[in-house]
Amino acid sequence: MNHFARIAEQLPARGLDAILVTSEAGEFYAAGFHGEGVALITPERTWYYTDSRYIEAAQAIQGAEIGMIRTGQSYRGLVGELVAAHHIRTLGFEDESMSVADYKLWVRDVKADFVPASDLLTQLRMVKDAGELAAMRQAQKVTDEAFAEILNFIRPGVAECEIAARLTYLMAGKGAQRNSFDPIVACGANGSKPHAIPGKDLIQKGQFVTMDFGCVVEGYCSDMTRTVAVGEPTDEMKLVYDTVLRAQQAGIAAARAEVTGAEVHNAGAKVIADAGYGEYFGHGFGHSLGIEIHENPRFSPLWDKPIPAGAFLSAEPGIYLPGKFGVRIEDVIMLTDEGCIDITGSPKELIVL
Q1: pLDDT of residue 215
Q2: How far is CA 105 from CA 89, 99, 101, 108, 118, in A?
Q3: The pTM is what?
Q4: How far apart are CA 239 and CA 105, in angstroms?
Q5: For residues 333 and 279, what is the distance between their CA atoms, to the nearest angstrom?
Q6: Biggest distance spanned by C-alpha atoms of the chain
Q7: Which residue in 122, 130, 173, 236 has a CA-CA distance of 20 to 30 Å to 92?
Q8: How many CB atoms lie within 10 A of CB 202?
């Protein structure tokens, strides 16, 4: 699964003779391959260069001429030769991921006009195709299955870090390539920290346990958060959980193609504010994901642009009460013209263990 042709189609409208792809995420989107290399894409031809560690695997890449960099050569030198031979004058590059130091070297060694073009790839990556959808559904299936099994592991006396390690083990055993990010596991008062780091704190009866985790399958990420109670929760815990669930449902109900991220965020945030917890919800309602765990567009009060059909975003409101507990519930949804499709299969009603 690669997107050379899709990228090439966009070049004439951008006034680009070619685009240089150098980032890890850009490389995977373009070539469908995780290695270390660069791609040069023109409307007519594509070249992909890597080194001896990856060259055998790279032979499977379709739609590009594959080459290997050798001792004493540089990617800049090879690309420079192609640019000169094919009269490439305007060269797009990934300005959002290339360091200033690398940019200076590329400009020195490749004789073309470098044009910032990260947004070309970013906009294409917003909308997932059928192959990407299948990979993300499989990643979510693995995540759902791991959640179902971890419920049998959580009990008083188990440490946060043990749960995090167990989730990693379970997902790997079900076909995950790796975690899409380090799992977050937070019990009790630690749950008020949205990105708490799992430690040696032991689960106690009467606490919430929040787990935010995901995996990568075929290069694409999943992401899910569930908060469960160990022992009977208090009335306040139940109220907060119900408020977060209703906020998530309100945001999901507002999500459809061509709405702005602000509209979806505000629909969920209003439920939390109306319940009196507005000051305890400080992050955006959700973010896009795919090859990377955080991509654009976003369900954010700052995202005032329409979001296209085929975009995948998380729906993850939360309430975080310092020194007490926190609750977050997260699904991943795909926007359609009619509304959205929730690809997360795990239950969302409050689970009491």
Answers
A1: 98
A2: 17, 10, 7, 5, 18
A3: 0.95
A4: 57
A5: 26
A6: 72
A7: 130
A8: 14
User: Three-state SS for 38?
Assistant: strand
Question: Which two three-digit tokens encode residue 44?
Answer: 């007519």
Write out the chain's pLDDT in tens, 353 residues: 899 999 999 999 999 999 999 999 999 999 999 889 999 999 999 999 999 999 999 999 999 999 999 988 999 999 999 999 999 999 999 999 999 999 999 999 999 999 999 999 999 999 999 999 999 999 999 999 999 999 999 999 999 999 999 999 999 999 999 999 999 999 999 999 999 999 999 999 999 999 999 999 999 999 999 999 999 999 999 999 999 999 999 999 999 999 999 999 999 999 999 999 999 999 999 999 999 999 999 999 999 999 999 999 999 999 999 999 999 999 999 999 999 999 999 999 999 99
* C-beta separation of 32 from 15 below 8 A: no
**Single-letter amino acid code for the residue at 329:** I
Pick the CATH number of 130-342 from 3.90.230.10, 3.40.50.2020, 3.40.50.1110, 3.40.1110.10: 3.90.230.10
Indicate the DSSP class of residue 331.
Answer: E
Residues in the chain: 353
- Residue type (1 letter), 256: R
Tokens of 294: 């955080």
For 178-216, the DSSP string reads EESSPPEEEEGGGGGSTTPPP-SPBP-TTEEEEEEE-EE
CATH ID of 4-125, from 1.10.10.10, 3.40.350.10, 3.40.980.10, 3.40.50.970:
3.40.350.10
Nearest one of 176, 123, 171 to 147, comparing CA atoms: 171
CA distance 312 to 332: 7
> Distance between CA atoms of 181 and 178, rounded to whole angstroms?
9
How many other C-beta atoms can be found within 10 angstroms of the C-beta atom of residue 240?
26
- The whole-angstrom separation of Cα 338 and Cα 336 is 5
Which DSSP state fits 74? -
Q: CB neighbours of 80 closer than 8 A, spacing ≥ 6?
A: 109, 110, 111
